[in-house]
Amino acid sequence: MLNTGTFWTQLIVIGLIFLSFFTLPSCKDKPPKVVQSDSILSPTPIDVRPPFGFPPVPVPSDNPFTKEGLFLGRKLFYDPILSGDNSQSCASCHKQSSSFVDENMKFSVGIDGSIGIRNSMPLYNLAYAKRLFWNGAATSLEDLISEPITNPIEMHESWMNTLDELQTHEEYPLLFQRAFGEKGIDSVKVVKSIAQFLRSIFAFDLATHPDTTFSKRAMTPQQIRGLRVYVDEEKGDCFHCHSVSLLNTNYEFMSNGLVENPAQDPGLFEITGRPQDIGRFKVPSLLNIKYTSPYMHDGRFETLDEVLAFYDTGFHYYPDYPNLLDPNLKKHLDPQTMKPVSRKWTKQDKEDLIAFLNGLEDSDLLSNPIYSQP
Prior knowledge:
- The chain is an all-alpha fold.
- The chain has twelve helices and two strands.
- Helix 2 packs across helix 7.
């Protein structure tokens, strides 16, 4: 039976959080002018403001936002100069038009034709994550950026070659000089500038925004019913991991029982070495989920119908790791057989839930010029 108290509490939370207009970052879509001069100017500090209701943006003290740094990072993000054969950029596997994922690709393909092992993740709201990548391999955006450039199955480039190309480029020496207030290009400056750009990308759900400005995106009756399923602990039971909030994730690493043997796909354990982390993966946001298929860290599900079927009766319990499966899934097991028991939802409930999920949309992100190729 629907827990109406829980539902109305969650609905009130949504109403309070979304009472705002979407506020774009304060940086303007104007690149700093490249002037052929020996003078060295200090970079221009700027305040990148997240949308209303978001927490303040955590900014490293050694990599503050600047107008010139942001532009440089954005330019580098879209430039294939960072890859071994100058054929791929960061944007090749994180396309803005697909909410910064690799469009309809289970695994991305590197410059040598090598196929990756993880589904491309979207790149919005990363400023608030303490660990990045599906397995938590990076602890900062700066760490995140270094890995794909030198990874042999991705961009497959050496820092020596990258820096040589940037140093001899007609624009980059001056762009780096303007961004960092000194001459010279090194790998630290490359990753810091791209990190500034990624840290400035925000997305949030316009579908449930109650302001009349977005009335064309107001929740439909079916989506409202889907929200009830989403927060019903006997039906969707989604909100524990995918919080009913602007960020729509708890940013934690959890086991959802996806694989039969978690030791063969150990996730966070690869990084921490802690047995309790075997098979744990990053909980993604569901924002713009309609644009980011296929789903899960290994891209195994092409549709949301498949995802719901998995969370109904398809997930696994691990007797060798009895405390690994998330408790909010474990409660949906038969205590005798330890197999999933179908939830108390109907076909209509599932259709309503999918309608709600598809409404968790920030379509402006897909074409916003401040995130596009300069």
